[in-house]
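Standup, Tuesday
Yesterday: got the pipeline producing structure tokens again.
Today: sanity-check two examples.
Blockers: none.

Example 1:
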Amino acid sequence: MNTIINQKLRALAESDYKQFNEKLIPTQYEIIGIRMPALKKLAKEMATNPDVETYLQQAEYTTYDHILLYGLVISNLKKPSLETVFRYLDPLILKFDNWAHVDTIISSLKVFKHYPDEVLAHFLPLKQDEGEFTKRVFVIVLMDFFLNDAYIDIALKHFQEIPQGQYYVDMAIAWALSVALIKYYDKTLPLLEQQRFSRFVHNKAIQKARESYRISPETKEFLNTLKIKVISD
């Protein structure tokens, strides 16, 4: 099956898109260059194949695109149990070496919406993980599935407790905070006023929020006044 999958992926490759992604995504893996609509279509087809379990058990992780495909196949399984999703996803997470793997695959796992408590408990150990992209997984899980009325307070608490200092973790926290500002401004603003994050995360969150069309010009101007300035000697 791996040979067939390789042939299908290579057939979908576009050299221009490969070059574009190579400039955009820092990864140790070879990038074949497959556009997301084509990759998602292939994943959907594979998820309904009677041999999908064989693929999930024996798949190769030889390229950037292979890893994306595997994650998208998991997200397209028909009514999978949470245990099944975790069984295939957990080893895959250890293969992530870039932001696109994390963001694309985690956001596709809509099944997580139905089991918030179990999902949070499962991914909580990643909060203190040493890995940059495993920790980013935890941030993106919170951002994608826990910025809602039931869990906003818990999510904001975790954002403050995640160790900062790794670039792709910090960028994810800033992104998540900007989304939280848009959705729960009154709850998120105090964290900026109290400067609960590093200068980088703090200022980047404000920058991303100010780029949103969902925040009024007046609020954007106010947020700009909260930026932490560099103190020169």
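Example 2:
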Amino acid sequence: MRVVTGVVGNDIHVVANRLIEISLKERGFEVFNLGVNTYLEEFIDAVIETDADVLLISSLNGEAEGWSRDLLFLKNRFDLEGVIFAIGGNLSVGEATQEELVPKYKAYGFDLVFHQIDLNEGLNMIEESLKENQKAGL
């Protein structure tokens, strides 16, 4: 399985990005890490170029929302059926809960939203979603 990952927008949390890459590789994923300061359009281009199964965007500075709002628009421009779109990390400036943020980010086009959730828990959920896609023939 191929995954494109990186840190969205003006976020420069290199260490967390590297830990995500290592964890994905340990689980057997082929990882295309775009690094930090990555624009949404760059993620979409990489998903298309690599024929990725998953796009996993991370953010720790809490400013992902402003950088991610156009995902649904971009998904509709390209044939990305079967790709799992996930975002995780610290997804809010200030206080917010997973319950508050999930509907907001899903409305932007994300399938999975992980706000302040353990990395391994999030990766388990991605693997489960991939299994569901395989069963559905996507």
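Quick observation on example 2: Helices lie at 14-26, 40-50, 64-68, 71-77, 98-107, 119-136. The mean pLDDT is 93.
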